[in-house]
Each structure stands twice: as structure tokens, then as C-alpha cells.
Specification:
By secondary structure, the protein is α/β, with parallel strands linked by helices. It is built from 17 helices and eleven strands.
């Protein structure tokens, strides 16, 4: 058996540890191992010149380092080209390249998109290439059994909590606010985990808004503004608000056009997310509101993403990824010995045991895509985190003394404040 390893999507702490574990176990089992550089990028073009041999010496000391020695890309082999003679030529080129390189087993390391690409490759290459996927993402949005985290998440949270703790100290010392955006395009696990772990003032995640509606920019800023007013009323005019970046994908287009009339747009008129800078937009609007009330608190925008995803893995993720890497090789070994109909699986750790789960167990039967694990607003982790946040509550409006104090910080009468912001707790 000749095993190929590739990495897809963004970096995550522990990718090198998976590469190391797979290579060492495979070589010790008598298999040949090669690394495929830059994810699917070169395979899509049918190229095999970016495939390198991997030995134990190549990987023996990389398990504690961040990034990936194989590099990574977001090249997507599942994109259809309807105008081409073969709409799935990208996928078919990948299979031809793997066959040309004598690779009959493939280990993919990646998140939701890479998992889907692995699934499609396994389906199209049934009988020719066996595929096992090792799930990673600091977003923690793959639906692993028993609510296990995806590898990389715990390291990202660990590093992020240290950064947030420093920002909270700075906020207190200088009496200012920080608006921090954390990664999480589809789910708010990281923003919530950072807030809970660091004891930040509040988190705002997309799951807290109705899924079928755009998120109002005014609503978003109202939530944070009321937190600042509650803090000011309690004699603490400082804090840190953490936003999940996925909110930016769902903001109201009309409000964005008004707030950012000169921002670059694509050919469909949509604001480019790279131009949005959610943290800067919200910080600017919040600071403007505070100044309009005569409150001179500075608001600083921060984005903590790249610092987290490329950090060296903590022991939890090194331990976890060694298990997953060994499990991936063991699965391929058993799969080859059985020579059955099974084409591949995602390797998971369940109650201390390595369990390969068929790809279709993670697939949304309506869309055909890998299901996304979002924050459960009824779950214990969210409910506990919410209890320790500073947000406007019903009790703040129901208790006259508290209402008067917060309204006073806003320079408003209690009646006017309740009328203006009451919808937040309705």
C-alpha cells in the first residue's frame, strides 16, 4: 500500500502531528508514504511533480510545531464546470494523478470543505483509492460524536484566552473597550469558548439571531452598547466584546451600504468580506455612539485569527492527533485486508476508542454537504457562558433602580431607554 497525505483549508494546531503519526505508523507497518504538497491544488491539474517521499526521519520531530510541512490550500476539486466536456474534470484529474503516482490510499487532513472533497473522491474512486479523513478546524464545527472537539480547537482557545486576558488587563488600565473578532464562519464555538475561558464581558455569535433573517447591524451594535452602559453604570467603564466572524456573512446588505458606501463590491453588488473588517466597523459605530452620549471611552478593534490557527499544539492536541493519525493508518490497513464495499470514513475518537465513521453519517441528505455543528443555545455550555456575560437583561428594565442607573449612563430617561432598547430582552 502506498499512502498519500494532504492538508486542505486553513492551518490548525496539530496538523504536523497527524502527518508525523501517520508516517511513522505506516512506515513501521511496511507501507510507503508520500506527502502531497499544497492540498488538492496540483492534483486538480493532474500533476504529480509536487508529491514527495516521507520517511520517519522527515517527521520524527515535527509533532510539536504549528503549521504543516506539506503546506495547505483551499483548492476545491468538487467545483463543477458546466461548460466543460467533463463537468467533474477536477475530481477526475485528481483520481488520475493519484493513480499515476501509484497512490491507492489517501489521508486527508482538513475541515468541512476538505471532508466533502474526501467524500466525493472516495465515491468516485471506489475500488481504486481508499480515503480516510482526519477532521480538523479551530472553528469546531464538524459534528463529531459525543461532542468531541475537532483537533486544533483546544489549542486555539488556549492561545486565544491568553491574548484576551491581556486585552482585558489593558482595557481596565486604560478604561477602554475592545471589539474582538474570532474565527468561526459557520459556528460560534471559538468566540464562545474564548469568552468563557477568559471571562470576557460578552460574546455575540450568529446562532443568537433568527437563522432565516439577515442580522441587523443596528441590533448587533445595540447589544454591545447596552453592555458598555451597564458596565459604566456599575463603575467599570471598560470591557472586551468578542464577535464570531460568521456574523459578517449575515449582516443586512442595506445597513452595510449605508455604513460603508465606498466599500469594494463584487460583480453582483455584494460587499467583499475581506473589505468588511467586522471588528473595525462595529468598533467605529460603537465609539460614535458613546461620543454622541458624551462618553469618551476609546474603542479598539482587534482580530485574533491567524495567531490561533498556526500556534504550536498544546499537549491535548498532540495526544489527540497522535491517536487520530495512528487510527487512520489502522483503518486503511483493515480496509485493505477486508477488500469490501466500504470506500472510506472519517476517523473519530469516541470514549477513548478510535472509531471510523462512514462519510455518509456526517452528510446532510438535503444538500449533500457535510453537516455543520453549531452552538446549541439550549445546551449547558452556552447557558453557563451566558450567565456570566454582561448583557441587558429583563431584570434591568423591570427593577426601577437598575433601569434608572443604566439609563442615566446613557443620558436618557428610564422610559426612553426602555422604549429604545426594550426589544433586546422582549
Amino acid at each position: 500500500m502506498r499512502i498519500g497525505i494532504l492538508c486542505g483549508g486553513g492551518p490548525a494546531p496539530g496538523m504536523n502531528s497527524v502527518i508525523s503519526a501517520v508516517t511513522i505508523e505506516a512506515v513501521n507497518s511496511g507501507f510507503e508514504v508520500v506527502g502531497i504538497l499544497d492540498g488538492f491544488e496540483h492534483l486538480i491539474d493532474g500533476r504529480t511533480d509536487q508529491i514527495i517521499p516521507l520517511s520517519i526521519n522527515d517527521v520524527s520531530r515535527i509533532n510539536g510545531s504549528g503549521g504543516t510541512i506539506l503546506y495547505t490550500s483551499r483548492a476545491n476539486p468538487t467545483v463543477l464546470d458546466e461548460d466543460a466536456e467533463d463537468p467533474e474534470w477536477r475530481l477526475h484529474n485528481c483520481l488520475k494523478a493519484l493513480s499515476s503516482a501509484d497512490i491507492n490510499a489517501l489521508v486527508t487532513i482538513g475541515g468541512e470543505d476538505t471532508a466533502y472533497s474526501a467524500t466525493r473522491l472516495a465515491q468516485e474512486g471506489a475500488g481504486h483509492v481508499k480515503v480516510v479523513h482526519v477532521p480538523k478546524t479551530i472553528d469546531n464545527d464538524l459534528p463529531l460524536p459525543h461532542n468531541m472537539p475537532t483537533f486544533g480547537f483546544e489549542t486555539a482557545r488556549h492561545v486565544g484566552v491568553n491574548l484576551l486576558t491581556n486585552l482585558m488587563t489593558d482595557a481596565q488600565a486604560t478604561k477602554r473597550w475592545f471589539v474582538v473578532v474570532a474565527m468561526g464562519r459557520s459556528a460560534g464555538h471559538l468566540a464562545l469558548g474564548l469568552t468563557k475561558g477568559a471571562g470576557a464581558t460578552l460574546a455575540v455569535i450568529a446562532e443568537e439571531f433568527p437563522e432565516e433573517e439577515p442580522i441587523s447591524l443596528k441590533h448587533l451594535v445595540d447589544i454591545i452598547e447596552c453592555s458598555t452602559l451597564k458596565r459604566i453604570a456599575s463603575g467599570r467603564p471598560f470591557g472586551v466584546a468578542v464577535l464570531a466572524e460568521g456574523i459578517g456573512l449575515r449582516l443586512s446588505a442595506e445597513e452595510l451600504s449605508e455604513a460603508m458606501p465606498d466599500v469594494e463590491r463584487d460583480e453582483h453588488g455584494h460587499i467583499r468580506l475581506a473589505e468588511l473588517n467586522l471588528h473595525r466597523l462595529v468598533a467605529r459605530l460603537l465609539e460614535g455612539r458613546l461620543k454622541a452620549r458624551g462618553l469618551r471611552s476609546a474603542v479598539v478593534a482587534k482580530n485574533i485569527g491567524y495567531e490561533l490557527r498556526s500556534a504550536p499544539p498544546i499537549p491535548f492536541d498532540i495526544d489527540y492527533t497522535k491517536d487520530l493519525g495512528w487510527g487512520a493508518v489502522n483503518y486503511l490497513r483493515e480496509l485493505t485486508a477486508r477488500e469490501g464495499e466500504e470506500i472510506g470514513a472519517m476517523i473519530t475518537l469516541q470514549e477513548g476508542e478510535l472509531v471510523p465513521v462512514p462519510f455518509d453519517a456526517f452528510t446532510d441528505q438535503t444538500t449533500g454537504r457535510i453537516r455543520v455543528r453549531r452552538v446549541d443555545l439550549n445546551g449547558t455550555r452556552y447557558r453557563v457562558a451566558r450567565e456570566y456575560m454582561i448583557k441587558l437583561e429583563r431584570e434591568d428594565l423591570a427593577e426601577p433602580g437598575r433601569l434608572a442607573s443604566i439609563a442615566g449612563a446613557a443620558g436618557m430617561t428610564p422610559e426612553a431607554f426602555a422604549e429604545r432598547y426594550g426589544y433586546l430582552v422582549a
